[in-house]
Amino acid sequence: MDRSRILATTDLTAKSLKVIDKAISYALASDSWLEVLHVAEPKMFAFGLGDKNPDAPVDNEQLRAISDRIKAGLGRKIDKMNVETRLGDVAETTLAYAKEKRAELIIIGQGAGLGGLATFFLGTTTKQIVTDSPVSTLIVKTVGDSKYKTIYAPVDFTDETKRAIAQACGRFGGARLILEHLVETPSELQSLYYGFNETQIEAGKTAFKLTAEKQMQTFLETLKAEFPSVAKAGIETRVSLSEIHPENIIKKASDLGADLIVLPAKAERGSRAYDILEFSSIDLLMAKQ
Predict the structure, then answer these.
(1) Any residues with CB less than 8 A from the CB of 93 and at least 6 apart, and which?
(2) What are the C-alpha distances in Å from 138 to residues 6, 81, 244, 264?
(3) Are 263 and 154 in contact (CB under 8 A)?
(4) What is the rounded CA–CA span in Å between residue 262 and residue 152?
(5) Could you tell me the sign of the dihedral formed by the alpha carbons of 243, 158, 282, 149, in that order?
(6) Residue whose C-alpha is closest to residue 256's, from 173, 152, 182
């Protein structure tokens, strides 16, 4: 591939235009070409942007006029940027455009905070793009530039997580990196039910944590050896006895001051990663291999 190319999408809301601000910041920092795409769904186009007749044909001049208005409305312009409007289903059109332009990263927002059907449909679209995209997706939840200060990565010691962390370090060099493994132990009620006393329960927790700390050390050593971008990062490792639950992971990231969570994007939309995507108020990098 020649110059790296990223794709950012907008639905013309004020919130989504702030996503473009972050995309511009990232494009400038990485010396990338930025594609900005607005997908006008046929019914929305008919009733809001084009002819009042929903069955009226849409011509390229109408779409180009919208693209020109978007570019003018961004306020800030960069030389290496193209703005286009396409007609169609949002997820399908976005993915097709990313393939056409050979984008290596997609930057999108999410309908968090809109409530009702808007949140449902936008959230569904986001998950479809993340699931079906062959490249990584940055889901923007906050305003500001793309110079992340603290990246939080929940670690399960898999190769997928290793590659996701390496990708985050490569894209956002200079950030502090926190790797945390959560050790979920049986509850005290479960342990007592099976006949363990309090001393045995505490000894079990200690043993679980010591094993996990050794695994974390091995994981970190191989991670640094395999990926130079990680070896250069300032890294903090943590092992915590804690329930492995999306809301708990989000809270830990927030308490540690993280402004980006990195996760491997799973093929199954019902996985824990997609629950984190839905409920997080922190930006997420859903990394594809």
Answers:
(1) 37, 39, 86, 87
(2) 10, 18, 23, 12
(3) yes
(4) 6
(5) positive
(6) 152
DSSP 29: H
pTM of the prediction? 0.85
Q: Judge contact between 288 and 168, C-beta under 8 A.
A: no
Burial (0-12, 13-18, 19+ Cβ within 10 Å), 13: middle
What are 240's two structure tokens?
Answer: 């915590």
Distance from C-alpha of 15 to C-alpha of 142, rounded to nearest angstrom? 9
Q: Give me the residue label for tokens 């013309």.
A: 12
Dist CA 83 CA 37 (whole Å): 6
pLDDT by residue (tens digit) across 257-270? 999 999 998 766 55
**What backbone torsions phi and psi does residue 162 show, to the nearest 5 degrees?**
-60, -45
Per residue of the chain (289 residues), what is the pLDDT tens digit?
A: 345 899 999 888 877 877 888 998 899 889 999 999 999 877 655 555 444 455 555 667 878 888 888 887 776 667 888 989 898 999 999 999 999 999 999 999 865 333 333 444 446 788 889 999 999 999 999 888 889 999 999 999 999 999 999 999 999 988 999 999 998 765 655 655 566 677 776 777 888 899 999 999 999 999 999 999 898 889 999 999 888 889 999 999 999 999 999 999 876 655 788 889 888 999 999 999 7
Classify burial at 77, counting beta carbons within 10 Å of its beta carbon; exposed 0-12, middle 13-18, buried 19 or more: exposed
User: Do the strands 136-140 and 283-287 form a parallel or antiparallel pair, or are they unpaired?
Assistant: antiparallel
Domains defined along the chain, listed by start? 5-140 (3.40.50.620), 150-259 (3.40.50.620)
- Angle in degrees, 0-180, between the axes of helices 159-171 and 198-226, rounded to the nearest 10: 50
- Rg of the chain over Cα atoms, rounded to whole angstroms, equals 22
